[in-house]
Design a protein that fits this description.
Bound molecules: flavin-adenine dinucleotide
Number of helices: 7
Mean pLDDT: 88
CATH superfamily of the largest domain: FAD/NAD(P)-binding domain
Radius of gyration: 24 Å
CATH architecture of the largest domain: 3-Layer(bba) Sandwich
CATH class of the largest domain: Alpha Beta
Strand content: 15-25%
Number of domains: 3
Low-confidence stretches: 1-9, 25-46
CATH topology of the largest domain: FAD/NAD(P)-binding domain
Structural class: alpha/beta
Distance between the termini: 56 Å
Shape: elongated
Largest sheet: 7 strands, mixed
Number of strands: 17
Length: 359
Amino acid sequence: MYIYNFKVDICLLLELILNLPLRIFEGFIKEYNMEFNLSAVSFLSEKNFLSIEEAKVYDVVIIGGGPAGLTAAVYCMRKGVSTAIIIKDIGGQVADTAAVENYLGYKYINGVELVEKFKEQVQQFSIAYEEGRSVVSLSDDDIKKVVLDNGKVVQGKTVIIASGKTWRKLNVPGEDRLVGRGVAYCAICDAPLFAGKIAIVAGGGNSGIEAALDLAAIASKVVVVQNLENLTADKILIEKLSKFTNVEYVFKSHVLEIEGDEKVTGVVVENIQTKEKTSIVADGIFISIGLDPNSDFVKGVVDMNRFNEINTDSFCRTSVEGIFAAGDVTSVPFKQIIIAGGEGSKAALSACEYIMKKD
Ligand SMILES: Cc1cc2nc3c(=O)[nH]c(=O)nc-3n(C[C@H](O)[C@H](O)[C@H](O)COP(=O)(O)OP(=O)(O)OC[C@H]3O[C@@H](n4cnc5c(N)ncnc54)[C@H](O)[C@@H]3O)c2cc1C
């Protein structure tokens, strides 16, 4: 009882010490009708997201709610700049990941759980937030206009594009339903889950053969399904894969359907010439037919490379002043959560520095 009361007293004391100056400060701000972003000083208390105001010009508008965008949001709010974030699907690719084992601080974490932790960290700030909306265009004016798919226009002194990438899909029955339950896209990330199991790889290009190499070392059997009559990956990769005795190839065929109720149990492939259908028993399928950057809405506005990735310098600056980009949507090599997060923080610091020097 004594210990309990002592704890309560300490908590009350801390609450007073931490929040009293803040309340006085807030009163002062209200009294003098000053516009000031309190988020940077109020991050100890839980705040709800604010809705985005069309009439306001935000210091930073962030596009995307994957690791790059959410990290940028945390950095901007801690810097005390007014920030709006527009997110199509919270978490981005991380939300599709069964297990993350290479993000520091967690030996193992489920992708959805990690997204929850990211969101929780952003939610402590009173950030202007819109989820479930896509950006459809962006202007390169001094004050940037970010147009959403419902016609809403969000204005920003700077913009951080963190719209990531989307795996190219097969668009066959079973694919969406079984993502994370045998349907996988990222071999670097998910191959270890297939130790001793049978895995199909759809795609015979570089990403497909790299996936097959990761899998061949640990899976009991790997079946590469390629729509052409030969593999199109680099020779060195093909030679490496040929050394494994547990790899089979199915050429001139495409995947018609992914089978399974709770998890993948097999796939149906069809020979493109003969139209013959075959069922292959498997524990999972890696769809390795490439990734596309979500950069369509900014085509013709910023410079891109031949893969439609946004070109950035080491400060995450794009070819347009005031527009920054971070994460998988950029030309930065290696697409991983920790890299996207690091790039997001860099983009935020660059945007804040840009505003400070300009104002
Ligand atoms: C299945 C899978 C497993 C993976 N496993 C791992 C792993 O174990 N470890 C690891 O380090 N990496 C892994 N990766 C890679 C990692 O997830 C990515 O490198 C990382 O998520 C990139 O972060 P990002 O923020 O740049 O982009 P994304 O995660 O792609 O996020 C982009 C965000 O932008 C939003 N968006 C897109 N277009 C628009 C638009 N027009 N308007 C508004 N919002 C938009 C999206 O909805 C999303 O919120 C995996 C990827 C996949 C697909």
